[in-house]
Amino acid sequence: MQTSFTENHEVKRNRFDILYKEWSDAISQGNEYFENYHTLLALFCYLKAIELVDPLIKHQPTSRQSLGALLVSYHNLADLYVRENSLRQAWNALVQARQRVIAVFCKHGETPGTCWGCQLAHRQLSWFENEYGSFDNFTPKQRINNTYLYQSGPSVH
Predict the structure, then answer these.
(1) CA distance linking residue 151 with residue 24, whole number of Å
(2) How many CB atoms lie within 10 A of CB 54?
(3) pLDDT tens-digit profile of 101-111?
């Protein structure tokens, strides 16, 4: 017996919902630990949430829900690092978030979700750099040779 497109889509949607719930639980637990200053437990939860983003991106790579989960996970991790005065790690987390969103954009093209994700990742990193500075290890000459890492993201109007 063959399954219909609708049944197959429903199975994928249910799997996505289960994965999203796991991610949401990890973030919620991490936020609770963060609020109670349980730094190592919060760190563990945020890192787990980042791992759980991979299957979300695999199932729905261009959705705002998947990309939002990616950005929230890295942003919360960066907030934790800022609170611990680990600004280089915070900056690295935001750079990784932007790079991952740009990678989705490059693979799946310009969609409302990928454009939104690139803009938001760029805004978060720019705000951080305006507030705390940049912590890159590249010299100006190396930066020119590595322009992919320093693009401001796609322009959406």
Answers:
(1) 30
(2) 13
(3) 999 999 999 99
Measured CA to CA, the distance from residue 98 to residue 122 in angstroms comes to 6
| pLDDT (0 to 100) of residue 152 | 46
* Token pair belonging to 111: 């969609």
- Domains observed in the chain: 5-150 (1.25.40)
Model pLDDT, residue 140: 45
Structure token digits, residue 97: 């978030």
Compute the CA torsion angle 22, 46, 95, 134 (nearest 10 deg): 160
User: What rounded mean pLDDT belongs to the chain?
Assistant: 86
**C-alpha span between 87 and 135 (Å, rounded):** 8
